[in-house]
Amino acid sequence: MTSSERTRAEIHVRGAKKSFSGRTVVDVDELVLGDSAVEGLLGPNGAGKTTLMRMIMHSIPLDEGTVTLHKRDGSTITLSELPPHQMVSNGVVKSTQVVSDFDQLTILDSLLLALATPGDESPIRWKAERELAKKHEEEIRHQLDRFGFGNPNEVAGSAGEKKLLDIVRCLLLKPDVLLLDEPTAGLPDDITQLVMSAVRELALGGTSVVIVEHDLEVIWELCDEVTFMAEGRVLMKSDPETIRNNSLVVEKYLGADHA
Amino acid sequence: MLDWLDAFLISGLFGVVQIIGLGLLVHLQMGLTRVANFGVAGFWGLGLYVFGILYGKVDWPFGDPWQFLVCAIAATAASALAGLFVAWLISDLDVDGALVGTLGFATVIFLLATAWSDLTGGAAGLGGLGFPYDAGPAKTNEFIWFVLTTAIVAGILAYVLWVHRSPYGRLLIAVGTNEPLARSLGKSSTRAKLTLFTITSGMMGLLGVMQAVMFRFIIPANVTINITLAALAGLILGGITRAWGAVVGVLFTVALFDIVIQFYVPLPQEWYTQAIPVAREAIFGLALVLVLLFRPKGMLGEMKRPQLMRRIHDFK
């Protein structure tokens, strides 16, 4: 590894501001995400966590500031200048906060969609479908078996199944940075454990994972580091134990009777 | 030869095949990608007129079939480029915006066809066109042209069926059903729409070329909204999301009315000038209303993706 290379990709947020109707929703001076394998983003409702995630993905534009990606090979890309669809090709992937799916597509369709490259999706590549399925057969079977999807040839039915499918699509993209926005909301406990296990596995492989989650057990168990936000600002960043016992966090978010 | 075949029947069947072809292309745009197109007549008409002008007004140093081929390729390319341009304009608009934008394009083509009379012949029309071969009597030439056009439309149908079974089709459906989610997976929805519109508009232009040769004479009345309505009515009636929707729908509208009723039902001669064309549009409109009320997904119903995926793949 040369001096400029790093073990994980990092996202640097500098001077990022976003206001809606005159109200500042995000105002982050300096934040580095990805310096730990799994990082949590914690804060009360309205803290600006989801808005910050969307600003990182450039699905909403910044009023001020920049978001840059520092890749493992040492190169740097300004994410806040890229169109949203170019995030994936640069290794940055985000799950959706609300349940979202493609109405007409089956579960298998969804997985193949995530795996297909622009070359596979050429309007004149005649044998692309079978080649695509054959190339990724093992990977698809692994994910289908791991998460216990019923019939991959059916459209995802329940909200939980759609949520899980969203996460699996993200996993299949093999991101350098994965942003998960409330990934286990609505999932049963056993599936939540499977998702956490998959996230750990991904992080071990070198992916930087950032999780926004209201299920605090997920944050305490999974994260190496936690950033606490309130009223659009980053108030502190530390290990889970320190955050958990910090009086400010207790006052603004956890409450005095938290476990 | 071909004594058994009436010239009117060839012309009627040719019209049915044309509308099926246009309906199939609109299916890719509206049924899969959900990009509204109310300007079918514009892309089709552009191919028709560019071919007519190039073939009839330019003094080419070579004759047919090269003259036809060069003019047909140029006309197809012109429609494809127009499709690219219009798609670029409407790619970020909602359904209403896309409808108005494409309708506006078709209106511009109609107005140019009418007003630019030096080039298009205006209301008097543009002639001087002919078949790129001579197989004998006009009816024989027309029949051969009908077969060629049918082959092209069969090719379009085969392409549509392939699209449904390909990653490209999946991309179009993804963009159509949830564009933000598709973008979050790294899909360029804008590029998908632009590529689709370029290809499908080019094919609409080629169908316009086939029309120009078949009737050897072009007038602005050819490129009114009627052809758009016929394609849309057939497609929606058959099932806008189904590959065979346009085929079934057009057979139950255009074919049923323009061939079965007009050709085989004995109607008073005086009805053909006024009453029948008006009744045709009224019946198409009524059929659309009834379908949208009682079977909004069309005769073939909704997209049957699970069945298709089971046929292609053996994942269980």
Describe what is shown at a glance.
The complex is a heterodimer of chains A (259) and B (316). Chain A has 259 residues and is α/β, with parallel strands linked by helices. Chain A has helices at residues 49-56, 86-89, 107-115, 128-135, 137-147, 159-172, 189-204, 216-222, 240-245, 247-254; strands spanning 10-20, 23-33, 38-42, 64-70, 76-78, 92-94, 177-181, 208-212, 225-230, 233-238.
Describe the protein's architecture and organization.
- The complex is a heterodimer of chains A (259) and B (316).
- Chain A has helices at residues 49-56, 86-89, 107-115, 128-135, 137-147, 159-172, 189-204, 216-222, 240-245, 247-254; strands at residues 10-20, 23-33, 38-42, 64-70, 76-78, 92-94, 177-181, 208-212, 225-230, 233-238.
- Chain A is an alpha/beta fold and 259 residues long.
- Chain A has 2 domains: 10-101 and 156-254, Rossmann fold (3-Layer(aba) Sandwich), CATH 3.40.50; 107-154, no CATH class.
- In chain A, the strands form 2 sheets. A 6-stranded mixed β-sheet of chain A has the order 6-7-8-3-9-10, sandwiched between helices.
- The model of chain A has no long low-confidence stretch (mean pLDDT 89).
- Chain B is mainly alpha-helical and 316 residues long.
- Chain B has a single domain (7-312), classed as ABC transporter involved in vitamin B12 uptake, BtuC (Orthogonal Bundle), CATH 1.10.3470.
- Helix content of chain B is 72%, strand content 0%.
- Chain B contains 13 helices and no strands.
- Chain B starts with 6 loop residues before the first helix and ends with a helix.
- The model of chain B has no long low-confidence stretch (mean pLDDT 91).
- Chains A and B meet through helix 2, helix 3, helix 4 and helix 5 of A and helix 7, helix 8, helix 9 and helix 13 of B.
